[in-house]
Amino acid sequence: MAWRSVIGSIVAVLMTIMDIQITNAAIGPIQAALHAPLADASWISSAYLIAEIVTLPLTGLLSRRLGYRRYAQVFSVMFMAASVLCAQSTSFEMLVGCRLLQGVAGGALMPLAYSLIMTRLPDGEHGRAMSLFGAMVTLAPMLGPVMGGFLTAHFGWASIFYLNLPIGLVGLALMMSGLRDEPAAGRERTQVDWPGLVLIVIGLGSLQYVLEEGNRYGWFASRDIAVLTGVALVALAAFVVRERASAQPLVALGLLANRQLRIACAANVTTGAAVFGTYFLVPYFLIELQRYTPAQISLVILYGGAVQLSILGFIPRILKRVHVHVLVVVGALLSCISAWMWSLAAADFSYASVVVAQLLRGLGFTLMLTPLGVLATTATVKHDAPSASILFNISRSLGGAIGVALLTALVGIRHAAYLDGSGGAHGAADDRAGFVLAFGQTFAVMAGFLAAMALAFAALHVRQAARERQAARGA
């Protein structure tokens, strides 16, 4: 019964993460159908992401108030209803509003799997569950554009939203069969920290907007971006002060005093940046430099997904034999090699090398994400699962937003620097050479961050092993 609820919640997570990217392949048809301005098309994704990250801090309070069964019902139905409304949108403004509603439901469903793994499964099953969860988290951003492109080409753009109905119903049915309704006494009626709620909504909403739209407006050359950055920093700092002094905090930030959870969340920022950054950079690279069609791009991306699915069954057994720190090191190194191969492909493209890079990426990301999930789930007691889940999921979402924003900016900066340095008129050859340089250097930067993560976890493992040996000698 417990496993049904966990699998159902993971299906829901697959649906919500997939929906972040699924609209990218349908931007053109949506613009044509709804007469959307090209400059505003990014709001189809931005609206979802802003609503999602603003909702995440509220999920602990909502799950305690509603109980997991009712919580799953409310937000699964809300997500599916919002999806139907998106498909039926008759204007661009209506679509953006419905995407906001989708984002609220998606943000609520995102941490549910983590919480159910911690509270419903015995500790010995966490590794198996997190391997499945980790695979879905890395597969979903890949499946989104693939499914979006296929459905849009064959059934029209509205079909990308109707896809959520069968997926959502399967997830909801599994959760309902696996979750027992908590007794009324088990639903906490805690006082809502309204000042904290307002601060976190303003802070995270402003920060997500800056990360999503900053590159488009020239970052701090834009007065609005500069002001919103200041608002985000002040609001988030005030939220931290408020929560640390509150008897009933909205998010138990004190959990970050737990070293293991703190390490898992910090590493999750880097992993989120690598995962979502790759799913942005690879299609961008293949379009700009190789002129690939959506179908060709989908095939390249699917190589990594095939590896992730093929090793899924082996991860729990590997976790029992290999320390999680070692797995993160191996995963980060494989991902580093993959990013470095992509940096070389910018100047000397070879389809075979790209396939190998994608295979290494799929293996590396899986070996990173699953151990980090195990670190997070074993760091706290079950009572703290909602807050720990919020912190872990926010770290990944922010990492993804930061990664995409920084990598986008870096490609633009290095491309512009090359053109400025070449002087004179710029032809197609100069433009291509600039992109070759920009993509090569950007992938190399990603490889550097992943190498640093591998070194950090290697040092962490060595220090922990030394402490354990010292403790054994003292005993």
UniProtKB/TrEMBL annotation:
Report which superkingdom the organism of origin falls in. Bacteria
Membrane-topology descriptor: Multi-pass membrane protein
Whether Transmembrane helix counts among this entry's keywords is yes
InterPro entries named among the record's database cross-references: EmrB-like, MFS, MFS_dom, MFS_trans_sf
The question of whether Transmembrane helix is a record keyword is answered with yes
Q: Which UniProt keywords apply?
A: Cell membrane, Membrane, Transmembrane, Transmembrane helix, Transport
Q: List the subcellular locations.
A: Cell membrane
Record SUPFAM superfamilies:
MFS general substrate transporter
Transmembrane residue ranges: 41-62, 74-94, 100-117, 129-151, 157-179, 191-211, 217-241, 261-282, 294-315, 322-342, 362-381, 393-413, 433-460
Q: Which GO terms describe its cellular component?
A: plasma membrane
Q: Which Pfam families match?
A: MFS_1
What residue stretches are annotated with the Major facilitator superfamily (MFS) profile domain?
A: 5-465
What's a Gene Ontology MF term here? transmembrane transporter activity
Q: Which family does it belong to?
A: Belongs to the major facilitator superfamily. EmrB family.
Per its UniProt record, what NCBIfam families does this chain match?
efflux_EmrB (TIGR00711)
Q: What is this protein called?
A: Major facilitator superfamily (MFS) profile domain-containing protein
The root-end lineage is:
Bacteria, Pseudomonadati, Pseudomonadota, Betaproteobacteria, Burkholderiales
